[in-house]
Design a protein that fits this description.
Distance between the termini of chain B: 21 Å
Shape of chain B: globular
Number of helices of chain A: 12
Number of strands of chain B: 3
CATH architecture of chain B: Orthogonal Bundle
Order of helices and strands of chain A: HHHHHHHHHHHH
Number of strands of chain A: 0
Structural class of chain B: alpha+beta
Distance between the termini of chain A: 83 Å
Largest sheet of chain B: 3 strands, antiparallel
Helix content of chain B: 55-70%
Radius of gyration of chain B: 17 Å
Number of domains of chain B: 1
Oligomer: heterodimer
Structural class of chain A: mainly alpha
Shape of chain A: elongated
Strand content of chain B: 5-15%
Number of helices of chain B: 5
CATH superfamily of chain B: Winged helix-like DNA-binding domain superfamily/Winged helix DNA-binding domain
Strand content of chain A: under 5%
Order of helices and strands of chain B: HHEHHEEH
Number of domains of chain A: 3
CATH topology of chain B: Arc Repressor Mutant, subunit A
Largest interface: A-B, 21 and 18 residues
Protein backbone atom coordinates (compact mmCIF):
# COMPACT_ATOMS: atom_id res chain seq x y z
CA UNK A 1 0.00 0.00 0.00
CA UNK A 2 1.53 3.20 -1.06
CA UNK A 3 -1.36 5.46 -1.92
CA UNK A 4 -1.21 9.21 -1.42
CA UNK A 5 -3.27 8.77 1.74
CA UNK A 6 -0.77 6.24 3.13
CA UNK A 7 2.07 8.57 2.43
CA UNK A 8 0.19 11.48 3.95
CA UNK A 9 -0.59 9.52 7.11
CA UNK A 10 3.01 8.35 7.45
CA UNK A 11 4.28 11.90 7.06
CA UNK A 12 1.84 13.21 9.66
CA UNK A 13 2.32 10.47 12.23
CA UNK A 14 6.11 10.67 12.06
CA UNK A 15 6.12 13.59 14.48
CA UNK A 16 3.08 12.77 16.60
CA UNK A 17 3.81 11.34 20.09
CA UNK A 18 4.02 7.53 19.83
CA UNK A 19 1.36 6.52 22.42
CA UNK A 20 -1.50 8.05 20.41
CA UNK A 21 -0.11 7.36 16.97
CA UNK A 22 -2.29 4.35 16.10
CA UNK A 23 -5.46 5.95 17.31
CA UNK A 24 -4.84 9.15 15.41
CA UNK A 25 -3.94 7.11 12.34
CA UNK A 26 -7.22 5.20 12.39
CA UNK A 27 -9.29 8.29 13.00
CA UNK A 28 -7.50 10.41 10.43
CA UNK A 29 -7.72 7.65 7.82
CA UNK A 30 -11.47 7.42 8.42
CA UNK A 31 -11.84 11.19 8.20
CA UNK A 32 -9.91 11.31 4.94
CA UNK A 33 -12.07 8.44 3.64
CA UNK A 34 -15.24 10.34 4.59
CA UNK A 35 -14.03 13.48 2.87
CA UNK A 36 -13.13 11.54 -0.30
CA UNK A 37 -16.49 9.73 -0.31
CA UNK A 38 -18.28 13.03 0.00
CA UNK A 39 -16.54 14.32 -3.09
CA UNK A 40 -16.90 11.18 -5.21
CA UNK A 41 -20.63 11.05 -4.45
CA UNK A 42 -20.73 14.50 -6.01
CA UNK A 43 -19.30 13.02 -9.23
CA UNK A 44 -15.54 13.58 -8.81
CA UNK A 45 -13.15 10.73 -9.63
CA UNK A 46 -11.33 9.10 -6.71
CA UNK A 47 -7.78 10.14 -7.57
CA UNK A 48 -8.72 13.79 -8.01
CA UNK A 49 -10.82 13.73 -4.84
CA UNK A 50 -7.93 12.25 -2.85
CA UNK A 51 -5.57 14.93 -4.10
CA UNK A 52 -8.05 17.68 -3.24
CA UNK A 53 -8.72 16.35 0.24
CA UNK A 54 -5.04 16.01 1.11
CA UNK A 55 -4.34 19.45 -0.30
CA UNK A 56 -7.10 20.82 1.91
CA UNK A 57 -5.61 19.15 4.97
CA UNK A 58 -2.35 20.86 4.11
CA UNK A 59 1.26 20.36 5.15
CA UNK A 60 1.44 17.17 7.27
CA UNK A 61 4.06 18.70 9.55
CA UNK A 62 1.66 21.52 10.36
CA UNK A 63 -1.17 19.08 11.03
CA UNK A 64 1.10 16.96 13.25
CA UNK A 65 2.14 20.08 15.19
CA UNK A 66 -1.53 20.83 15.83
CA UNK A 67 -2.17 17.28 17.00
CA UNK A 68 0.82 17.42 19.32
CA UNK A 69 -0.06 20.97 20.41
CA UNK A 70 3.43 22.00 19.46
CA UNK A 71 4.27 25.64 18.97
CA UNK A 72 5.68 26.59 15.58
CA UNK A 73 8.14 29.18 16.76
CA UNK A 74 11.72 29.19 17.92
CA UNK A 75 11.30 31.45 20.91
CA UNK A 76 8.02 32.46 22.49
CA UNK A 77 6.95 35.85 23.84
CA UNK A 78 7.73 34.87 27.46
CA UNK A 79 11.45 35.06 26.92
CA UNK A 80 11.75 37.11 23.76
CA UNK A 81 12.22 40.51 25.39
CA UNK A 82 14.79 39.39 27.94
CA UNK A 83 16.62 37.47 25.20
CA UNK A 84 16.69 40.58 23.00
CA UNK A 85 17.92 42.80 25.84
CA UNK A 86 20.77 40.44 26.74
CA UNK A 87 21.65 40.05 23.07
CA UNK A 88 21.98 43.80 22.60
CA UNK A 89 23.95 44.17 25.82
CA UNK A 90 26.44 41.38 25.08
CA UNK A 91 26.86 42.16 21.38
CA UNK A 92 27.48 45.83 22.06
CA UNK A 93 30.35 45.10 24.45
CA UNK A 94 32.12 41.77 24.11
CA UNK A 95 33.00 41.55 20.38
CA UNK A 96 34.49 45.06 20.50
CA UNK A 97 36.54 44.21 23.60
CA UNK A 98 37.80 40.92 22.13
CA UNK A 99 38.57 42.59 18.80
CA UNK A 100 40.51 45.37 20.52
CA UNK A 101 42.50 42.93 22.65
CA UNK A 102 43.38 40.78 19.64
CA UNK A 103 44.41 43.87 17.67
CA UNK A 104 46.61 45.09 20.52
CA UNK A 105 48.24 41.67 20.89
CA UNK A 106 48.88 41.48 17.15
CA UNK A 107 50.29 45.00 17.14
CA UNK A 108 52.55 44.07 20.05
CA UNK A 109 53.85 41.22 17.92
CA UNK A 110 54.78 43.75 15.28
CA UNK A 111 52.12 43.12 12.65
CA UNK A 112 51.61 46.86 11.98
CA UNK A 113 48.45 47.54 9.96
CA UNK A 114 48.06 43.80 9.42
CA UNK A 115 46.80 43.62 13.01
CA UNK A 116 43.42 45.10 12.06
CA UNK A 117 42.30 42.05 10.05
CA UNK A 118 42.66 39.42 12.81
CA UNK A 119 41.01 41.88 15.24
CA UNK A 120 37.92 42.26 13.02
CA UNK A 121 37.75 38.51 12.37
CA UNK A 122 37.99 37.76 16.10
CA UNK A 123 35.26 40.32 16.87
CA UNK A 124 32.93 38.81 14.26
CA UNK A 125 33.55 35.25 15.42
CA UNK A 126 32.87 36.29 19.00
CA UNK A 127 29.63 37.96 17.92
CA UNK A 128 28.44 34.86 16.07
CA UNK A 129 29.32 32.61 19.00
CA UNK A 130 27.49 34.84 21.48
CA UNK A 131 24.40 35.06 19.27
CA UNK A 132 24.30 31.30 18.72
CA UNK A 133 24.81 30.13 22.30
CA UNK A 134 22.60 32.77 23.86
CA UNK A 135 19.77 31.95 21.46
CA UNK A 136 20.20 28.20 21.94
CA UNK A 137 20.07 28.62 25.72
CA UNK A 138 16.88 30.63 25.55
CA UNK A 139 15.23 28.24 23.09
CA UNK A 140 15.96 25.34 25.45
CA UNK A 141 14.61 27.23 28.45
CA UNK A 142 11.55 28.20 26.43
CA UNK A 143 10.95 24.56 25.42
CA UNK A 144 11.30 23.05 28.86
CA UNK A 145 10.01 25.84 31.08
CA UNK A 146 7.45 27.75 29.02
CA UNK A 147 5.90 29.42 32.09
CA UNK A 148 8.56 31.20 34.05
CA UNK A 149 8.34 33.28 37.18
CA UNK A 150 10.05 36.24 35.62
CA UNK A 151 9.90 39.33 37.80
CA UNK A 152 7.06 41.60 36.76
CA UNK A 153 7.88 44.84 35.09
CA UNK A 154 7.48 47.91 37.33
CA UNK A 155 7.46 51.60 36.54
CA UNK A 156 10.69 51.98 38.50
CA UNK A 157 12.51 50.25 35.66
CA UNK A 158 11.73 53.09 33.27
CA UNK A 159 14.96 54.64 32.03
CA UNK A 160 15.42 58.39 32.21
CA UNK A 161 14.42 60.31 29.15
CA UNK A 162 17.63 60.40 27.13
CA UNK A 163 19.41 63.72 27.66
CA UNK A 164 19.70 65.66 24.47
CA UNK A 165 23.26 65.21 23.34
CA UNK A 166 24.81 65.73 19.97
CA UNK A 167 28.04 63.92 20.84
CA UNK A 168 27.34 60.20 20.94
CA UNK A 169 29.18 57.69 23.10
CA UNK A 170 30.19 55.36 20.22
CA UNK A 171 31.63 58.36 18.36
CA UNK A 172 33.67 59.37 21.42
CA UNK A 173 34.87 55.83 22.08
CA UNK A 174 35.92 55.44 18.44
CA UNK A 175 37.90 58.69 18.57
CA UNK A 176 39.61 57.77 21.83
CA UNK A 177 40.52 54.31 20.54
CA UNK A 178 41.97 55.79 17.34
CA UNK A 179 44.04 58.26 19.37
CA UNK A 180 45.31 55.56 21.75
CA UNK A 181 46.25 53.31 18.81
CA UNK A 182 48.18 56.21 17.25
CA UNK A 183 49.92 56.95 20.54
CA UNK A 184 50.84 53.27 20.91
CA UNK A 185 52.12 53.12 17.35
CA UNK A 186 54.74 55.83 17.81
CA UNK A 187 56.99 53.94 20.29
CA UNK A 188 56.02 50.60 18.74
CA UNK A 189 57.30 51.42 15.26
CA UNK A 190 60.67 52.23 16.83
CA UNK A 191 61.13 48.75 18.23
CA UNK A 192 59.01 46.65 15.92
CA UNK A 193 58.25 47.87 12.43
CA UNK A 194 57.67 45.52 9.53
CA UNK A 195 60.95 46.58 7.95
CA UNK A 196 64.18 44.81 8.84
CA UNK A 197 67.72 45.49 7.73
CA UNK A 198 70.03 42.91 6.20
CA UNK A 199 71.01 41.64 9.68
CA UNK A 200 67.37 41.13 10.54
CA UNK A 201 67.34 44.04 12.97
CA UNK A 202 64.42 46.35 13.15
CA UNK A 203 64.43 49.62 11.17
CA UNK A 204 62.16 52.26 12.73
CA UNK A 205 59.83 53.86 10.21
CA UNK A 206 60.15 57.33 11.69
CA UNK A 207 63.43 59.20 12.03
CA UNK A 208 64.87 58.08 15.44
CA UNK A 209 66.43 61.53 16.00
CA UNK A 210 62.90 62.93 16.38
CA UNK A 211 62.67 61.25 19.79
CA UNK A 212 64.80 64.07 21.24
CA UNK A 213 61.82 66.39 20.98
CA UNK A 214 59.18 66.07 18.26
CA UNK A 215 57.79 62.59 18.84
CA UNK A 216 57.32 63.10 22.62
CA UNK A 217 55.69 66.44 21.80
CA UNK A 218 53.28 64.75 19.37
CA UNK A 219 52.42 62.12 21.99
CA UNK A 220 51.62 64.91 24.46
CA UNK A 221 49.34 66.52 21.85
CA UNK A 222 47.59 63.20 21.20
CA UNK A 223 47.17 62.56 24.94
CA UNK A 224 45.69 66.05 25.28
CA UNK A 225 43.31 65.13 22.45
CA UNK A 226 42.12 62.10 24.42
CA UNK A 227 41.35 64.36 27.38
CA UNK A 228 39.63 66.76 24.98
CA UNK A 229 37.37 63.97 23.61
CA UNK A 230 36.28 63.05 27.13
CA UNK A 231 35.60 66.68 28.07
CA UNK A 232 33.67 67.13 24.84
CA UNK A 233 31.52 64.08 25.67
CA UNK A 234 30.78 65.48 29.14
CA UNK A 235 29.76 68.81 27.63
CA UNK A 236 27.51 66.92 25.22
CA UNK A 237 27.69 69.25 22.23
CA UNK A 238 30.09 71.38 20.27
CA UNK A 239 30.64 74.90 21.56
CA UNK A 240 32.91 77.60 20.15
CA UNK A 241 35.45 77.31 23.03
CA UNK A 242 35.59 73.57 22.36
CA UNK A 243 36.03 74.31 18.67
CA UNK A 244 38.91 76.66 19.44
CA UNK A 245 40.63 74.00 21.57
CA UNK A 246 40.09 71.39 18.87
CA UNK A 247 41.57 73.71 16.24
CA UNK A 248 44.64 74.36 18.43
CA UNK A 249 45.15 70.62 19.03
CA UNK A 250 44.76 69.89 15.31
CA UNK A 251 47.29 72.56 14.42
CA UNK A 252 49.68 71.41 17.16
CA UNK A 253 49.69 67.96 15.58
CA UNK A 254 49.47 68.72 11.88
CA UNK A 255 51.84 71.66 11.54
CA UNK A 256 54.88 69.80 12.94
CA UNK A 257 54.04 66.70 10.91
CA UNK A 258 53.62 68.71 7.69
CA UNK A 259 56.79 70.68 8.35
CA UNK A 260 58.83 67.54 9.17
CA UNK A 261 57.46 65.76 6.11
CA UNK A 262 58.24 68.66 3.78
CA UNK A 263 61.77 69.04 5.12
CA UNK A 264 62.38 65.29 4.71
CA UNK A 265 62.93 64.71 8.41
CA UNK A 266 59.90 62.56 9.17
CA UNK A 267 60.90 59.17 7.79
CA UNK A 268 63.97 57.21 8.79
CA UNK A 269 66.67 57.59 6.07
CA UNK A 270 67.77 54.03 6.92
CA UNK A 271 64.57 52.82 5.22
CA UNK A 272 66.32 53.61 1.95
CA UNK A 273 68.66 50.69 2.55
CA UNK A 274 65.81 48.25 2.25
CA UNK A 275 63.36 50.10 0.07
CA UNK A 276 65.51 51.22 -2.82
CA UNK A 277 62.67 53.42 -4.08
CA UNK A 278 63.12 55.59 -0.99
CA UNK A 279 66.84 55.96 -1.49
CA UNK A 280 66.17 58.42 -4.29
CA UNK A 281 65.89 61.99 -2.96
CA UNK A 282 63.22 62.97 -5.52
CA UNK A 283 61.04 60.06 -4.47
CA UNK A 284 61.50 60.97 -0.83
CA UNK A 285 60.43 64.52 -1.58
CA UNK A 286 57.34 63.27 -3.42
CA UNK A 287 56.43 61.00 -0.52
CA UNK A 288 57.01 63.80 1.99
CA UNK A 289 54.82 66.17 -0.03
CA UNK A 290 52.09 63.51 -0.30
CA UNK A 291 52.10 62.97 3.47
CA UNK A 292 52.09 66.73 4.07
CA UNK A 293 49.17 67.33 1.68
CA UNK A 294 47.26 64.38 3.10
CA UNK A 295 47.61 65.55 6.68
CA UNK A 296 46.77 69.14 5.72
CA UNK A 297 43.68 68.14 3.74
CA UNK A 298 42.36 65.93 6.56
CA UNK A 299 42.96 68.71 9.09
CA UNK A 300 41.27 71.42 7.00
CA UNK A 301 38.32 69.15 6.19
CA UNK A 302 37.95 68.24 9.86
CA UNK A 303 38.01 71.89 10.92
CA UNK A 304 35.38 72.90 8.34
CA UNK A 305 33.17 69.92 9.21
CA UNK A 306 33.46 70.67 12.93
CA UNK A 307 32.76 74.36 12.36
CA UNK A 308 29.51 73.45 10.57
CA UNK A 309 28.51 71.11 13.41
CA UNK A 310 29.35 73.76 16.01
CA UNK A 311 27.28 76.37 14.22
CA UNK A 312 24.34 73.97 13.97
CA UNK A 313 24.54 72.84 17.58
CA UNK A 314 24.99 76.27 19.12
CA UNK A 315 22.15 77.72 17.07
CA UNK B 1 -11.18 51.51 2.26
CA UNK B 2 -10.37 48.56 4.55
CA UNK B 3 -7.88 46.17 3.06
CA UNK B 4 -9.08 42.60 2.57
CA UNK B 5 -6.15 41.23 4.56
CA UNK B 6 -6.89 43.38 7.60
CA UNK B 7 -10.57 42.43 7.45
CA UNK B 8 -9.74 38.74 7.17
CA UNK B 9 -7.40 38.89 10.17
CA UNK B 10 -10.02 40.58 12.36
CA UNK B 11 -12.76 38.18 11.31
CA UNK B 12 -10.44 35.28 12.10
CA UNK B 13 -9.73 36.70 15.55
CA UNK B 14 -13.43 37.21 16.17
CA UNK B 15 -14.31 33.66 15.06
CA UNK B 16 -11.47 31.82 16.73
CA UNK B 17 -13.11 31.09 20.07
CA UNK B 18 -16.56 30.41 18.66
CA UNK B 19 -15.47 27.14 17.02
CA UNK B 20 -15.00 25.61 20.48
CA UNK B 21 -18.42 26.84 21.63
CA UNK B 22 -20.09 25.62 18.45
CA UNK B 23 -18.44 22.20 18.70
CA UNK B 24 -19.47 21.76 22.34
CA UNK B 25 -23.06 22.65 21.46
CA UNK B 26 -23.15 20.44 18.37
CA UNK B 27 -21.65 17.46 20.17
CA UNK B 28 -24.50 17.26 22.65
CA UNK B 29 -25.52 14.86 19.90
CA UNK B 30 -22.57 12.44 19.40
CA UNK B 31 -20.82 12.70 16.05
CA UNK B 32 -17.59 11.88 14.27
CA UNK B 33 -15.06 14.33 12.81
CA UNK B 34 -16.18 14.86 9.24
CA UNK B 35 -19.94 14.77 10.03
CA UNK B 36 -19.39 17.42 12.69
CA UNK B 37 -17.42 19.52 10.24
CA UNK B 38 -20.30 19.40 7.77
CA UNK B 39 -22.88 20.23 10.43
CA UNK B 40 -20.86 23.21 11.63
CA UNK B 41 -20.44 24.43 8.06
CA UNK B 42 -24.17 24.08 7.38
CA UNK B 43 -24.90 26.17 10.46
CA UNK B 44 -22.60 29.00 9.46
CA UNK B 45 -19.41 27.93 11.25
CA UNK B 46 -17.03 27.17 8.40
CA UNK B 47 -13.94 25.52 9.91
CA UNK B 48 -10.89 23.95 8.32
CA UNK B 49 -10.50 20.20 8.67
CA UNK B 50 -6.90 20.59 9.80
CA UNK B 51 -8.10 22.85 12.62
CA UNK B 52 -11.12 20.84 13.72
CA UNK B 53 -9.62 17.34 13.95
CA UNK B 54 -6.74 18.32 16.26
CA UNK B 55 -9.13 20.56 18.23
CA UNK B 56 -11.42 17.62 18.99
CA UNK B 57 -8.48 15.65 20.38
CA UNK B 58 -7.42 18.61 22.51
CA UNK B 59 -10.92 19.06 23.94
CA UNK B 60 -10.97 15.35 24.69
CA UNK B 61 -7.63 15.61 26.51
CA UNK B 62 -9.06 18.47 28.55
CA UNK B 63 -11.98 16.25 29.55
CA UNK B 64 -14.58 18.41 27.80
CA UNK B 65 -15.44 15.67 25.32
CA UNK B 66 -15.75 11.91 25.71
CA UNK B 67 -15.30 9.54 22.81
CA UNK B 68 -16.35 6.11 21.72
CA UNK B 69 -15.33 4.00 18.75
CA UNK B 70 -18.08 2.79 16.49
CA UNK B 71 -16.93 -0.23 14.49
CA UNK B 72 -20.29 -1.30 13.16
CA UNK B 73 -20.13 0.67 9.94
CA UNK B 74 -17.88 0.27 6.90
CA UNK B 75 -15.02 2.16 8.49
CA UNK B 76 -14.29 2.58 12.21
CA UNK B 77 -15.29 6.03 13.41
CA UNK B 78 -14.58 7.86 16.60
CA UNK B 79 -17.72 9.51 17.98
CA UNK B 80 -17.29 12.47 20.29
CA UNK B 81 -19.84 13.69 22.82
CA UNK B 82 -19.85 16.68 25.14
CA UNK B 83 -19.08 15.50 28.69
CA UNK B 84 -20.66 16.81 31.89
CA UNK B 85 -17.55 18.85 32.44
CA UNK B 86 -17.83 20.14 28.89
CA UNK B 87 -21.46 21.02 29.51
CA UNK B 88 -20.69 23.17 32.56
CA UNK B 89 -17.83 24.82 30.73
CA UNK B 90 -20.15 25.43 27.79
CA UNK B 91 -22.73 27.20 29.94
CA UNK B 92 -20.00 29.54 31.22
CA UNK B 93 -18.87 30.22 27.67
CA UNK B 94 -22.43 30.83 26.44
CA UNK B 95 -23.04 33.23 29.33
CA UNK B 96 -19.94 35.13 28.36
CA UNK B 97 -20.91 35.18 24.69
CA UNK B 98 -24.29 36.62 25.68
CA UNK B 99 -22.58 39.15 27.93
CA UNK B 100 -20.41 40.28 25.03
CA UNK B 101 -23.50 40.69 22.85
CA UNK B 102 -25.26 42.68 25.60
CA UNK B 103 -22.26 44.92 26.13
CA UNK B 104 -21.91 45.60 22.42
CA UNK B 105 -25.61 46.42 22.14
CA UNK B 106 -25.38 48.78 25.10
CA UNK B 107 -22.34 50.42 23.63
CA UNK B 108 -24.01 50.86 20.24
CA UNK B 109 -27.15 52.38 21.76
CA UNK B 110 -25.19 54.62 24.09
CA UNK B 111 -23.16 56.20 21.31
CA UNK B 112 -24.51 59.34 19.63
CA UNK B 113 -24.57 59.00 15.90
Amino acid sequence: MNTLTDRYLAATLRSVPAPRRDEIATELRASIGDMIDDRTSGGADVTTAEREVLTELGNPDLLAARYADRRLQLLGPTYYLIWWRLMKLLLSLIPAIVGTIVTIVEVAEGKGFGAIGPGIVAAMQTGVQIAFWLTLTFVLIDRFQPTADLPDWTVDQLPDVPAHRDISLPETVASVVMLLVTIAYLPLQHYRSWVRDTDGDNIPVLEPALWSFWLPALIVVLAASVVFEIVKYRVGRWTWPLYGTKALLNLAFSVPVVWLALSDRLLNPALGERLSWLADADNRNTLGATIAVGVAVIMVWDLIDTALKTRRQTA
Amino acid sequence: MVSEDVLRTHLQELRRGTVVVASLVALRRPDYGYALLQRLTDHGFPVDANTLYPLLRRLEDQGLLTSEWNTEESRPRKFYRTSDEGESMLSRLLDDLAAVQTSITGLIQGVDR
